[in-house]
Every structure is written in structure tokens, then in C-alpha cells.
Amino acid sequence: MRSSVLVALSALGLVSATNFTIDIPSVSLTERSNWCTAQGNTCNTLCDNNPSANSCDPNTLDYSCLCQNGSAPGLQYYLQSMPTFICEEAYSECNAEYVGNAAAQSNCTTSIQDQCGSLDPNNYTAAAVVTTTSASSSAAGKSTGTASAATGSGTAPVTTTSSKAGAVPTAIGHGAAAVALGLFAYLL
């Protein structure tokens, strides 16, 4: 029984589909179960340990992975994911089919293996967002402001800053802040 698995690849808003056909029964049920376990772990990692859907059937290799925010992580780019296991198996089967034919095996590499995911999910870090807002200065030269932060564990935050009515942004480097404050003091 040959089964066809569609892996959608997207980058920069462009979508292309690569159809890898593998012989599912040729992969042992134990191996397919291991793939499903790894797939589930990768889904958990890429969804910050809080997926809304995370399932895998070792008999059919049907899987789902959906994060709480409704997005599906780019599993095809990561090792230890079902798209990569299927891609690697398709490459292996292609190579075995063309033993002794260097040109065909080279085609297996460029058309299949080069499409397999290579990013380590253990190196994934969620993008954290920190938002800082400075309110406008009052007539007496005092300013009020609020800051809120949302950070993921162990990540460097992405910072956005806004300022109104001449308030100095708070997310600038120390050297620039010293120059700005010195200039401000000189103007007073």
C-alpha cells in the first residue's frame, strides 16, 4: 500500500506544495509510533507547551498541531516533526529505488532531501513582546508613563516604544539616553 502525504511549504507568503509518497507499511509500527511521539513533543515545543490540538495516528501518519492562538507552526522546517520524518523516508525510498544510478540518486537529493526540515526544535524560542509607552509631559515638566511586558521564558524581548508630546522614549540605549538627557538639561 502506497500512501501520499502532502506537505505545504510556505515562505515569505509564497506557498508551494511538495507531494512525497512513502510506503507506510514498510516503516515498522514501532518506528511510526516513535515518529508520532516526537511529532507531539515538537508540536508542544513550537506551541509554547500549550497546543490546542496535538494528535498523531501511527497507523495512518495523520497528525494535527495547532497552537492556542489558532496558528499552525511551520513543522516542515523542523527536525523531529512528521513532515520531516515523511520527507526523510521518501528520500530513503527514492535512494533505494535508484541504487547504481548516480543521476537519479542526485535527483532524490535535490528534489526530496533538500526539502526536509533541518531546524532543531530544542533551539526554538518564542518571540516575546515588551511594550513601553511614555505619556506626554505636563506643564511642570513631570511625565507619567506606563509599561507592560509579556515575555516568554528564556527569550530576549522584542521592544516597541512610542512617545507623545516630546517625552523621551524609554527603550533607547544608555549612551543615547545620556546624550538626550544632557541635551535636554542644556536646553533648560
TrEMBL record:
Annotated organism of origin: Sporothrix epigloea
Signal sequence segment: 1-17
UniProt protein name: DUF7707 domain-containing protein
A Pfam family assignment: DUF7707
Record keywords: Signal
Highest taxon of source: Eukaryota
Residue numbers spanned by region Disordered: 137-161
PANTHER family: ANCHORED CELL WALL PROTEIN 11, ANCHORED CELL WALL PROTEIN 11-RELATED
Segments forming domain DUF7707: 21-121
